[in-house]
Amino acid sequence: MLSSSVPPSISRYTFSSRRRWLWVLLLTALLHLLLFVWGNHQFKVAAPVNRPERLVMAQIMPLPPVEKPVLLPQAPKPKPDAQARPKATQKPRAAPTPAVEVPDTPIRETVTPLDDNGPAGPAATGPATDTAETGAATTPTTTPAAQANATPPAGKHYQTNPPPSAELKYDVEALQKGQNYHGSGKITWQTDGGNYTINGEAGALFITVLDFKSEGEINDFGVAPVTYTQKRFRKPATQTIFHRERNAIVFSSSTNSYPRSGGEQDRASVVWQLASIGRGDSTQFSPGAVIDLFVAGPLDAETWRMQVIGQEKITVGGDDLDTWHVIRVPQAGSHEQRLDIWLAPQQQWYPVKLRFTETDGDYLDMSLSKMKRLTTAAAN
Length: 380
Hints:
Elements (H helix, E strand, L loop, with lengths): L7 H36 L77 H29 L16 E11 L2 E13 L3 E10 L2 E13 L2 E11 L5 E6 L4 E4 L2 E6 L5 E2 L2 H12 L9 E7 L4 E16 L2 E10 L9 E7 L5 E8 L5 E11 L2 H4 L1
């Protein structure tokens, strides 16, 4: 019986050959792997990452319209009347002078005697007419001087009732040259029914920005100041005097002078005059109403047109209050401040919020934080 067994030498050769090729394949795979890793680090090829795409949902809301500035009512300018314009008239041409015929005989001079006893009708009226015309011509030239020396008309009388004495403390927020500041302020209103005193101050960062004082009396016009003193930060104090004897308003830091006729205010008393008007008769406040007051500052004086915007609900000191919003907008081209005042009828018409805005956008905002009633003895 024949057997087909493989020689041992051939068997060992086949096994070793397979083992050698296996090592070659493993070494080749390892070299490829090392080459792939080296290539990734060399060329910085980022491995692809499958990230789920995120969807962002956004709802587009319409922007509110730009707030228009509040303009004071102005009377419409009258249209020029075309018929009222005088038309240019042509100068009349001089009539041609008639030719004078020379007579054949010389002209004799004749003299007619005057009758002294005759009527002096036309002759007497001539000089009188000239005198009347001369008087009529000179009258307008003397009228302006008489008007300049005349006493100015008295201010408008409002029904007033000044509020009781109180001490008002405010939270102050200011914007100056792009920087925001916070501080506190205080206004003390004291009156005994016949006289009054206003002391006020506002500060930020331990610096008193504004310090003012107004003293005067209570009369038929309401609040009637006698002296007003104002001191601003890094500026000297100024004083405005309302002379009773001279009937004039004069300034310590200005040569200006204005006649005093009654009803004039200073920059501190004007707020309390408005409160007195509201307490005197609340119907004097209505949306669109205008109250004109002649107000004197540290250097000058002018008529302030106070416009009642309307009733507004604001939050001050954590309380919601119904207020009347009154503004003073300076005339175009003026460098004066805009003043916003919020008066609270439920709180004796006290000014619960004040806002002073400069022409460059800087402002000083005073919002009531605490209020304390004062007795009449404290007012004296």
